[in-house]
Design a protein that fits this description.
124 residues, mainly beta, 7-stranded mixed beta sheet, 2 helices, 9% helix
């Protein structure tokens, strides 16, 4: 998958840089981070949604906990599902239509102080 830089700027002024894989096609989005046994702290995956839409994820065949971050088209974080449960079939929904979903290793958002309202920027 294509890899691009992504930055999260917190309301407190911190800047966190990641390298993320871009899941663009329906097949890439369906596969996501399934069957991976680890995810480096500075890595992640994004799921662009153009046009913006409601998004819902599940953890089927996902072996590691993830933080799933739902992002408005303007880059503002709507909500974060922290430490999602590996292998769970429970839906993890956005609260409104989103333009991007970002997945990071479970616990990273709490560790870095990333919260709803913070800004995500990435190279399209």
């Amino acid at each position: 998958l294509e890899q691009v830089p992504l930055t999260v700027r917190t309301a407190a002024g911190a800047v966190h840089k990641f390298t993320v894989e871009v899941a663009r096609s329906p097949q890439e989005q369906e596969m996501g981070l399934m069957n991976r046994s680890s995810l480096a702290p500075d890595r992640g995956m994004i799921f662009p949604h153009e046009p913006p839409r409601m998004a819902s994820f599940w953890m089927k065949n996902t072996l590691i906990p993830l933080d799933i971050i739902f992002v408005r088209p303007d880059g503002t974080i709507v909500n974060i599902a922290e430490n999602t449960v590996p292998l769970s079939l429970d839906p993890v929904p956005s609260l409104e239509p989103v333009g991007l979903v970002l997945e990071l290793a479970g616990g990273r958002t709490a560790e870095l102080g990333i919260k709803a309202g913070d800004k995500v920027e990435w190279q399209r």
